[in-house]
Amino acid sequence: MPYILNTENDRQAMLRAIDIESAEKLFSFIPASIKAKEYLLDKGCSEFSALQKIKAQAAKNTTVNEKKSFLGAGWYDHYVPAAVFDIISKPQFLTAYTPYQPECSQGILQAIYEYQTYMCLLTGMDVSNASLFDGASALAESVLMGLRIAKKNKVLVLKGINPQYENVLSTYLGGTTYIIEEVKTIESAISKLDDETACFVFQTPDFFGVINEPDEVISECKKYGIITVNVVNPVSLGILKTPGERDVDIACGEGQPLGAGLNYGGPGFGFMTANIKYVRQMPGRIVGKTLDLDGKTAYCLTLQTREQHIRREKATSNICSNQSLNAITAGVYLALMGSDGLSNVANICYDRAHYLYNRLGEIKDVRFSVKGEFLNEFVWNVKDAFDVLACMSDKGVYAGYLLGNDYPDMKDSVLTCCTEKNSKADIDFFVNKLKEVLDGV
Amino acid sequence: MGCKVIFDITMREKKNSYLPEFSCGYALPEKFKRKELCLPELGELDVIRHYNKLSNKNFSVDTHFYPLGSCTMKYNPKINDYIAGLENFSALHPLQPIDDVQGILEVLYTFQELLCSLTGMSAFTFQPSSGAQGELTGMLIARKFHELNGRRPSKVIVPDTAHGTNPASAAMAGFDTVIVKSNDNGLVDINSLKDIMDESVAAIMLTNPNTLGLFEKDILKIRELADKAGALMYYDGANFNALMGVTTPRMMGFDIIHLNLHKSFSTPHGCGGPGAGVVGVTEKLKDFLPVPIVVKDSGRYRLNYDMKKSVGKLRAFYGNISVLLRAYTYILRLGGDGVKRVSENAVLNANYIKEKLKDDFKAPYDDICMHEVVFSCINQKEKGITALDIAKRLIDRDIHPPTMYFPLLVKEALMVEPTETESKETLDYFIDIMRKINSEVETNPSIIKNAPVTMPVKRVDEVRAVRDMDFRWHKDGD
Question: I need a labelling partner for A340 at 20 to 30 A (CA). Which of A138, A224, B251, B465 fits?
């Protein structure tokens, strides 16, 4: 029997000790009418057989490494140094649980404390929690936090939030009476701010890649006591202006670009940083530094009276387990990259994306409907984009994400991303193949 | 030895060698740039040594017995990690064309079918990243189901033994929670339940076996009461590992369930995630699941977004895929015979511990327990030794402490979950140590009070942490 150490002799000895004749008898108080009469699944198999079976399934996938991939749209294919995998595979990180007992979890706690510091330095904010599930639920939790702080009813969202995040936000607020309203421009955002508004939410770079700076809205929000929530890509903060410099109240986003790899969309992790004055309204675990009885530096989970295991229905959130290992991964990634490495990643993404943008500009059937400076992603337009993308895939290029999936009025718009993994040669290949497709070759 | 914070390690030269040179001549205009980013510049060996030092300061399943009740710290088979790491799974972008990801969709579809067989449910979503997020999903489904039936029940019932996440999740979904008391046997008190079960109740959330490690024998009566009131039954599957292959949540009468794949299905806990809290529902609730779900049309797999009653999405994309792959591998390995043996052995191990320790530590519910056993240290408390003290003393004996002070119903609780993967030898060691600690209560209480002394730090001042509010490193002088 896989993974069970006890022999039949051990089991018999244990049964004798508890004075019961068979293991079956341990379940005798379960009504017979609700007992399974037979095995519910096929019989198990050897490790080798399982491996063969699953490898055969894996072989039916085509990976991003087999084509030239320019897919992003909220999930990014950055290079992850080999040392990251080595560290986060260590059993003392991989197979431990939440550090409830600080004395035998100091390593985990310090690693999370360092992660929290890294996220504060990156975002320019005061305090970070120990992670949330993903970028989308981190936004939902940030808005709920804003609603708790402002004690008002309306959430104003500036267009350009990742559409999946917007969907998750409305799911999370589905059981409440809060109102979410979307505004298309900075001007209309300003005109909609009022005494009923609890939160103003924006993303930068936005879903279309544009670096938008709604500075006027943020300063207007201060007048009304409106909580500002800034969704950001952490890698962009290698070079771009930070939420802290913008003086927002809460920053959040998806941590996947920091060393998590692709894994078909999960796991990454959600991060949240905030102004220190709101720390008691933050959801999730937080690690604090303290002392032990001898006065030595020590770490532990802290401010737990915010949390579900103590406050139950009055907790700041229901979150218990988060995505700790991925948060620690981000810490390791940032430790290896340093300032220089992270800003290089962002600079290279910028460089490559602008090269591609300019090369696409040479093609007469390509237009650019979305204006504004961008970092690693941009929107371009081409007639029959759906078919063009399919042809590009056949020619070995994942040319981008079709925005028509989310926006009915953008059916000919493609969102394309470059990372440091896309070489100049890959980009030239992309452009040549697109010319072939558009020429009907 | 203390370990320097990574920000205090000596800085190396700025020379990052992980990335290709950039080549195309474009640079971000100054006006968009941030103020200087100050992360430490370290060499790879600095980083490796640092994290190796940190890793050595932790207990984990691979290194220590870890009977943390309710958390199911069983062995995490290595083949699962290996499979999750295969490039043909790990190097997939979630927005690739469907034809290029048929393999992973086949895995998800097959996994869904296996979970349906094992639980009696009709469909699953893989989106929730944890049990708590599964609960929120379930409560939102319950809300929408009632609404589309023209009802707006406002309450959710949870037992006084429930995990804290249950009332917190119900509250997030906009429900008021109502507590149902336990009876003297540690089970839901049916008469109390009758008093509060009416048409204002949307759902009852139950863990079975409950957090006292006891099987809710009256589960079918509870089902009847819920049916009469038109309430749904929600199964918190945190303890499903006690019942796999023995019965199913469907047979017990549940409509919506979550399973913690990081508990019952052996995926590693990773210091507190990522896990997966997949949610299953019966036929009548299928259309309410989050979008998308994996479907199969004439031999081809795809993602179905066309579900008008769906509660929406709980996360971007589809789920914690590498966690799902591990659990899928585990189920294929074990099969129908294997999962049943898992539950039998988990329950046997817990009962063995209970039998051997019940003379030393009070077992408030002296019935056969399921996969975990809750002791109360009230007798020790009278002599000045608390459950916390005993937990800390266990650390000195190389054992990760059980869950403390939960469920709230039991005073000075220690909740022990040995899991099926531990040997009799290990259990005997634990039993022996627990007995020795109990005798130390009389003979050497100070050794318990001062524990632990073998760790990098002594007892940690948690009150001070709240007062100091030091959540991040600062540069000297900042």
Answer: A138
Q: Which residues of chain B make contact with A63, given a CB cutoff of 8 A? A: 87-88, 91-92
Q: Do A29 and B368 touch (CB under 8 A)?
A: yes
Residue A197 maps to which CATH number?
Answer: 3.40.640.10
The CATH number of the domain covering residues in B79-334: 3.40.640.10
Of A25, A31, A38, nearest to B344 by C-alpha is A25
**Which residues on chain B are in Cβ contact (under 8 Å) with A336?**
18, 42, 44, 47
Going by DSSP bridges, is the β-strand pair A127-128/A270-274 parallel, antiparallel, or unpaired? Answer: antiparallel
Burial (CB count within 10 angstroms: exposed 0-12, middle 13-18, buried 19+), residue A357: buried
The domain limits of chain B are: 6-55, 79-334, 343-464
Q: Does the ipTM exceed 0.85?
A: yes
Confidence of residue B20 (pLDDT cuts 50, 70, 90): confident
Q: How far is A267 from chain B (nearest CA, A)?
A: 4
Structure tokens of B177? 């929670």
Minimum CA–CA partner of A243 in chain B: B34
Chain B closest CA to A225's CA: distance in Å?
A: 24
Cβ B401 vs Cβ A101: under 8 Å: yes
Task: Kindly give the pairing relationship between strand B256-260 and strand B277-281.
Answer: antiparallel
- Write out chain B residues lying below 8 Å of A352, CB-based: 22, 24
CB proximity list for B464: less than 8 A, separation 6 or greater = A290, A291
Give yes or no: residues A299 and A310 share one domain.
yes
Q: Is residue A49 part of a domain?
A: no
* B390-434 pLDDT, tens digit each: 999 999 999 999 999 999 999 999 999 999 999 999 999 999 999
Do the chains contact at A39 and B345, CB–CB below 8 Å? no
Q: Are A177 and A278 within one domain?
A: yes
CATH number at residue A434: 3.90.1150.10
Residue B360 · residue B378 · CB < 8 Å: no
Q: Tell me, yes or no, whether A204 and A315 share the same domain.
A: yes
> Which chain B residues contact residue A30 at CB under 8 A?
215, 217, 243, 246-247
Per residue in A78-128, pLDDT (tens digit) is: 999 999 999 999 999 999 999 999 999 999 999 999 999 999 999 999 999
Pairing of strands B373-376, B413-416: antiparallel
Residue with tokens 């019952």: B264
- Same domain membership, residue A371 and residue A317: no
Whether residues A244 and A113 fall in one domain: yes
**Do residue A60 and residue B66 have CB atoms under 8 angstroms apart?**
no
What's the pLDDT band for A176 if we cut at 50, 70, 90? confident
The verdict on a CB contact (< 8 Å) between A96 and B392 is: no
Q: Domain range for residue A248?
A: 82-333
Which residue of B58, B224, B263 is the best one to mutate when testing the A interface, meaning the one whose CB has the most A CBs within 10 A?
B58
Do B37 and A211 lie within an 8 Å CB cutoff?
no
Domain ends where: A312, A333, A354? A333
Q: Are residues A75 and A86 in the same domain?
A: no
A137 neighbors B137 (Cβ within 8 angstroms): no
B424-443 helix and A8-17 helix, angle to the nearest 10 degrees = 40
Examine the fold and report which residue of A306, A333, A360 is the final residue of a domain before the chain moves on: A333
Q: In whole angstroms, give the CA distance from residue B464 to residue B213.
A: 35
* Subunit contact A401:B420, Cβ cutoff 8 A: no
Partner-chain residue, chosen from B34, B245, B351, that has the shortest CB–CB distance to A239: B34
Domain count, chain A: 2
CB contact under 8 A, B58 and A350: no
Model pTM score: 0.98
Residue A80, number of CB atoms within 10 A of its CB: 19
Give the CATH fold of the B343-464 domain: Aspartate Aminotransferase, domain 1 (3.90.1150)
Q: How do residues A330-370 score in pLDDT, each as one tens digit?
A: 999 999 999 999 999 999 999 999 999 999 999 999 999 99
